[in-house]
Amino acid sequence: GDSVVQTEGEVLLSEGDSLTVNCSYESTGYPSLFWYVQYPGKGPELLLKATKGNDKGRSNKDFEAMYRTETTSFHLEKGSVRESDSAVYFCALSDTVTGTAGGAEHKL
């Protein structure tokens, strides 16, 4: 079935460092892809999404992710992290948002 895989565990960075959180997906079609963020003490919220191949998802907090069909990847990137970005980040695809979602925890 369709799934996503996040390979890293906890990510430790200093303020101003660049961030990449890897996400690869497997799908028989062309799903919509999503990044969710969960800040300490709060519920998950949508960070950004891309609905078709080669789209770039962007957030209002300077995160972005490119939907790359040739590498089946949707890596989350930010050029300069801040302390306020400390959170858990989840990658998901359309067929797993309300079903079985795979992925490791990621913390800054």
From TrEMBL:
GO biological process: adaptive immune response
InterPro entries: Ig-like_dom, Ig-like_dom_sf, Ig-like_fold, Ig_sub, Ig_V-set, TCR_variable_region
Pfam families referenced in this protein's UniProt entry, alphabetically: V-set (PF07686)
Keyword Signal: yes
This protein's UniProt keywords: Adaptive immunity, Immunity, Immunoglobulin domain, Receptor, Signal, T cell receptor
Native source species: Cebus imitator
Protein name (record): T cell receptor alpha variable 9-1
Residues of the Ig-like domain: 2-108
